[in-house]
Each structure stands twice: as C-alpha cells, then as structure tokens.
Amino acid sequence: RYLRSASFPWDVVSVLPTNLLYLHLGPAVPAVRANRFLRVPRLFEAFDRRETRTAHPYAFRIAKLMLYVFVTIHWNGCLYFALSTYLGLGADDWVYPNASRPGFARPLRQYLHSFYISTLILTTVGDTPEPQREEEFLFMTAGFLLAVLGFATIMGSMSSVIANMNAADAAFYPDHGPVQQYLQAHGVGGRLLRRVAGWHQHLRAHRKLVGEQAVLRHLPSRLRAEVAASVHLPALRKVSLFQSCERGVLEALVLKLRPQVFSPGEFVCRTGDVGREMYFIREGRLAVVAADGVTRLAILGEGLYFGEISLINIRGNRSGNRRTANIQSIGYSDLFCLSKEDLTEVLAEFPSARALMEAKGREILLRMDKLDVHAEAAAVAAAEEAEQRVQALEVALEELQTRVARLLAQLESSAFKLALRIGRLESRAQQRRLARDRAPARDQGPTRLQGPDGGRGPGGR
After folding, report:
1. pTM metric for this prediction
2. What distance lies between CA 377 and its chain's CA centroid?
3. DSSP state of 236
4. Which of 12-16, 70-74, 128-132, 367-371 is least confident?
5. The pLDDT value given to residue 111
6. H helices of 91-220, where?
7. Any bridge partners for residue 298, and if so which?
8. How many CB atoms lie within 10 A of CB 122?
9. Is 279 exposed, middle or buried, given 0-12, 13-18 or 19+ CB atoms closer than 10 A?
C-alpha cells in the first residue's frame, strides 16, 4: 500500500544521497541537501500521530510551537549570513563583521551572531543595526512582516493551547468560583466558605476526579469498562467483599461506581437516614461515631465498605432501609459510591455476590442486635408458603390452559362439522330449485291447427 501511495516517490527523492555532490562542489554549497525539505509533510504527520499518543498532549503542542519558532529564527539567521556574505562581510554596520577581526572567524561565533540578529528582527524588540542598502531594507521589511504575521499566529496558537489546558482542567475538576460567589451573595462565609475552598484545593492538589463518567462517555462500553478497570481495579480488589469475586463482577461495578471525596469532619451518613447508596473506602479513614457525635466506636480503613445493610432487603432487619450508624470522615476520604438501583442490577446478574453480601449483612445485624431471628424465620416461612402458592397457581393455570385448549379444539371441530352440514343442505336446496325449473319446460310442447282435409279443425271432433 505504501509503495502505491502518492507519498512514496517524494520520500524516495528526499532520501537520495545528494551529499555525494559535496565531493565535486565542495562543502560550501548546502543547497545540495535541499531535497530533505520534501520530508516536511511526513514530519507534520509524525507530529499529529505523536500528539494523539503522548500522555501530555498540551506540553507536546507547546514544545512543537517553540520548535517552529527556533527553526524560523534559524532559517532567518542563515539567510542573514548568506546576504552578508553576498554584500561583503564588514561592508557596513548591518552585515556580519569581517572575519579578519579577532574571534569572528569561528563558525560558532558566526552562527550565534546571525541567530541573535535574526531574533532581534523577528521579535521586533529593537536595537537592530540600521540598514544601509536596498537589499538590507528588503530583508528587514520581510523580517518584520514575518514577525507580524507568523509570530502572531504562533503566539495565538500558544495562547489557545494554554486556554485549552485550563478548559481541560475545568472539565476534570469543578470550578470553585461559582460556589464561592453563591455563598457570598447569600451572606454565607467564614468556616463554610473555607471548607468549600479547601475541598476544591484538595481535588486539584491530589488530582482526584469526580466526573469520570463525563470524561469517558464517548468511549465504547467495552473499552470504557477496561479503562475504568485499569484505573480502579487495584483499589477495588482491596475490598474484602470482592477479593474472591470474578472479574466480571468487578467490571460491572467499576462502570457504576461514582467517586466522592469527603472533607475532614464531614458525616457520610447518620443514623436513621434513608439509605440510597453504599460506599467503598478507597483512601482515607472514617470513624463510626456514637449518638453523641464525639465518641468513636470503630475506625474504618482502606478496603472496607459500609451502607449495604440499608440497600439489601435482609429478612428480619429491624432498621429497614435506614442507616444504622454515624460515619464521619477523618481527614479527606476518597470513597466509591454505588446507588441502590445500580447495586440491584449488578446483584441480579451475579447471585453469588448477592448471597455473600447478604451473609455479611446478616452477620453485622446479629452483632448489632438488630436482626429479629423470629421475624426472619417467619419471613422465610411466608416466602416458602408464597412459593408453594405460586407453584399451586402455576399448576392450576396449566390445567386451565389444557381445558381451554380442549374446548377450543372441540369448538373448532363442531364449527367444521356445522359448516359441512350447511354446505350439504345448500347443495340439496339448489338441486331442488333446478329440478322445479326444468319440470314446466317438459310439460309445455308446440300445438298446430289441422285443416278440412284431415285432422282436427275448429268444428270437427
């Protein structure tokens, strides 16, 4: 495919060994390597591909723009030295000084001086030597126009890259400005305002994202699952509940988990609240606080989870779907949140994980003395009785379906027989009508009157 492409001939020409012409022309003719410029489109293609593969695309774009700037200054400096050589080195103050002056004959000095003059011209910062000849005026004018058009475009592109970087940060991390303005507009400040600012600052300092679903929404579902699993799977495997689960359970969970960050002293849930989510501790520590809000009964660390009791319908649970403990964050805590609807969907697909979670919840309720064993047994008996009733109803329904099928078959047979009888009767009736129509035609024949010579006449008998 590459051999048949349109770029192949140009690539071949660009790599021809034109350097061999130096053997005949000498090293003072760099134009023999001009064919290398034919590789410029491939260079741009390489830049575009690398930009999509690098982990720091904005830094790569800035570096690419800076490369364009240095290359432009370099080429302009080369043209300046070539023009100085054409006009004569040291002919005036604008061109490069004569090589006879001490130190100016070294190639490094020549290049640095030309690069410096080119930088002054293209950046239009002034302090450039005043041109004396027409060629010098034309070179300065072309340099100024290039600076106005080219460098303005490059600097505008760099400003756009920086703006895109800020926009990307705003997409990853929520902006604290509107929240602060909202609080200030309603006269709320002080400690609450500092907590909001500290929360936003913690997200940026530790690079924690809270809108992962919005960032990954354009990916296909399978690829999105793999990306989420590669990011969160190590933390999710720390949870004791999922250490023995298959990978399918984890991949189903990572697509539904929503990261949340809680500030120091903030309550994740309180006793009596309606439970709508369960939480997995990714980083940080949380305390189980007594009813007084001060006494710490236990400390929860990384890999633990809580809140599943109020989401799973455990028989005999006295608290129902209410929270059974006060959970307070110690420092900043990074949690995974799983809603009740998402948890029900995942557990419906993986019954083993549901059984394990119910067993863990039942154990916790027994330890907290919030599991009514008799009510659980009654619920189990009621469930078994309901199951038996359902089975009896299914059997009765099957019998009714069989009877209805038989009645339908009999009805269809009777209808078929009735249709046959009606058809025979209609056929007989039609035959009788035809017979009656033919009988008068046979009885009525033609009559002729006979004359006096013979036969019957009007007066003969």
Report:
1. 0.48
2. 46
3. H
4. 367-371
5. 93
6. 107-123, 134-146, 152-172, 177-185, 191-205, 212-215
7. 288
8. 20
9. buried
